[in-house]
User: Fold this.
Amino acid sequence: MKIAIMGAGLSGLACALTLEKNGYHADIFEKRGMVGDRMIFAEGVSSIFHTPIDDYIKFLSETYDIHLKPTGNISKTYIHSKNETASLEGNLGFINMRGKHPESYEMQFAEQIHSPIHLHSKKIYEEISKEYTHVVVATGDPSDVQRIQPFDVAYKASFKGATVAGSFKRNEIHTWFNNDFAPKGMSYLLPHSDTEASFILVYPQYPENQVKDKEKLWQEGFSFAEASLQQKLNVTSDYSLKDFIIGKSAYPRIGNTFFVGNCLGCISPFIGFGEFTAILTGIYAAEDICGIESYEKQTKHVFQKYHDSLTLRRIIEHSSNEQLDRVVRSLQVEFLGKALTSPRFQLLKLLGKIAHPISRET
Assistant:
């Protein structure tokens, strides 16, 4: 077999590493000038959205012999609405770095693999598919998928983010749900250290949001966060994105072409993260190529979680600030908070069943 991987992101590199552990190598084609060649930011993986897996670092290590070092664990999550605040405590997940940061997951993967990475690659799928027996599409760009098969777009998102300096508890994260500055979206703060964090605003680009002033929303959300945290935050770097596509492909595999990461549809429609699922799809594609397990079979749960996450997003999108206040107030009840953080409580699955009692084809 001659294997090509298009993209040196999390899913592509996880695929390459798994192939190597099974005695195969791949050629990796990356259009950027380096692995992780983009802005530096933090992402969080919450165990609440990956039950029954309550510790994905342990899971990857013990199940796939893949060892990642996160920036920190999450022991407390604050949830803020316009007028209410609640918190959840426990083993809630991990924070990790992305992009050019020396400790980013991309960098950690790149240090472990031996397959060649061809940087500044101009090769397109049509060229690669003629030369290689197996192709893994891991570019993270759904427009690359749309050249090959249908890709259902749930929505496009607008981001504005910054690295901020302040005083933080590195195991505590904050999220804000407030339609005044995050219409149908959210903002969040994830610490990198005791003195540095990522603060990000994200909301869907629906027509009613397109007319809003992004900078004004950002300033209002930033001021609200400062008031919640009771401190001034100093921006050391910032970035802005728009038209970030969140959706899913129609098929996980066509012939010997595998779609992984965001090219499959791993980004959670609710919270916008997807690194753990992206890593899993890279592993699953490699296992199929190695003859271990069917990729279509293994990705069924990925599509199901996508649908359930989209259901949760639609609920939030239809919630007013008053309704969001009531939800956050309910989380102040101790037994409900403990139930949400229990590995036995599968929030996405439960909401999906309530909204769609009849099982859907995934």
About this structure: The radius of gyration is 20 Å. The chain has one domain: 3-355. DSSP finds 13 helices and 14 strands in the chain.
